[in-house]
């Protein structure tokens, strides 16, 4: 998976319309009874609109759209949290970055990238920005947001600009091929996820069939953010540790750069790119009222 970030291109293009799920009405006592008997969610099972399921952690979801068993924690396009007598989901606004601060950090962001998309995506990564002291949690949040800000021009770009590159991201040597089409695995989302094998690996991890439906990364804000959080929390790239581990261990922001694009930028490769990431991180920690800490560069 270390090839993922090496394939990242530094630009993208706007998506005209964001797909934002509609709110679900507050449940009645009858709805609470429905939640009490809600079956456990099962991957691969067909669900109809209105089906209520209980996820692995006990939280409850209702299907907004029929789907073939997509993970309710992942896809806000198909599922919506359902608060009821069982307690429902944890408050997504427990994130150390408020929506007002998020908007301050990204004043020109594409409407596709929503605060709700980010907080929904975080539910699949409970350690992210919830580990250590309050300062550590805010520093990790600032570090993640600074890096994706750099990658997307301030959460402006959703996909690669140069469409001429799109066909190159299909590795036909893979046994599963490119079922969505030769030119469907181009860079998308906050880390510009690219290549058919990366879409498959991330999709398998998340429980979503991104190999056959890669467009979800540019249609569902939570799925887009999930791909970035997946890399942040699970992949060390060219670095010795993941970006998450770098921030909670005290290794410093510089090691997050190395984990994401160190092969190209660190050790004097592209100092201007490194400085761009550092500047964004300093700005975001200032907004959150915490020190930036040591070891900012790589």
Tell me what the structure shows.
It contains ten helices and three strands. The protein is mainly α and 298 residues long. It has a domain at 32-89: Ribbon (Seminal Fluid Protein  PDC-109 (Domain B)), CATH 2.10.10. The chain has a three-stranded antiparallel sheet with strand order 1-2-3, with no helix packed on it. Strand 1 (52-54) and strand 2 (60-63) form a beta hairpin. Helix 8 packs antiparallel against helix 9. The model is unreliable at 1-32 and 86-93 (pLDDT under 50). Keywords: Disulfide bond, Plant defense, Signal.
Secondary structure: elements and pairs:
Layout (H helix, E strand, L loop, with lengths): L2 H4 L22 H8 L15 E3 L5 E4 L15 E3 L17 H7 L9 H8 L11 H19 L43 H11 L14 H14 L8 H7 L3 H13 L5 H18 L10
Antiparallel strand pairs: 1-2, 2-3
Helix pairs in contact: 4-7, 5-8, 5-10, 8-9, 9-10
What's this entry about, in short?
With 298 residues, this protein is mainly alpha-helical. It has helices at 3-6, 29-36, 99-105, 115-122, 134-152, 196-206, 221-234, 243-249, 253-265, 271-288, and strands spanning 52-54, 60-63, 79-81. Residues 1-32 and 86-93 have low confidence and may be disordered.
């Amino acid at each position: 998976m270390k090839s993922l970030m090496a394939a990242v291109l530094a630009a993208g293009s706007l998506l005209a319309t964001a797909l934002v799920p509609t709110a679900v009405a507050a449940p009645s006592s009858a709805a609470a009874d429905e939640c009490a008997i809600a079956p456990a969610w099962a991957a691969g099972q067909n669900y109809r609109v209105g089906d209520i399921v209980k996820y692995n952690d006990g939280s409850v979801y209702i299907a907004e759209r029929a789907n073939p068993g997509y993970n309710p924690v992942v896809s806000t396009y198909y599922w919506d949290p359902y608060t009821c007598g069982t307690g429902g989901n944890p408050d997504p606004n427990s994130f150390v970055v408020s929506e007002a601060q998020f908007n301050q950090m990204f004043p020109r962001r594409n409407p596709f990238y929503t605060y709700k998309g980010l907080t929904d995506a975080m539910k699949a990564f409970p350690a992210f920005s919830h580990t250590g002291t309050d300062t550590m949690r805010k520093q990790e949040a600032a570090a993640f947001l600074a890096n994706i800000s750099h990658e997307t021009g301030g959460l402006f770009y959703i996909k690669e600009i140069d469409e001429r590159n799109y066909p190159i991201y299909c590795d036909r040597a893979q046994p599963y091929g490119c079922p969505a089409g030769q030119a469907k695995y181009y860079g998308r989302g906050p880390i510009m996820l690219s290549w058919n094998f990366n879409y498959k690996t991330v999709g398998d991890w998340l429980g979503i069939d991104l190999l056959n439906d890669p467009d979800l990364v540019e249609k569902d804000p939570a799925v887009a953010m999930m791909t970035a959080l997946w890399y942040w929390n699970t992949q060390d790239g060219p670095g010795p540790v993941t970006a998450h581990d770098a921030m909670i261990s005290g290794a410093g922001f510089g090691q997050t750069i190395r984990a994401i694009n160190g092969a190209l930028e660190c050790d004097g490769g592209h100092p201007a790119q490194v400085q761009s990431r550092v500047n964004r991180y300093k700005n975001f920690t200032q907004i959150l009222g915490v020190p930036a800490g040591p070891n900012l560069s790589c």
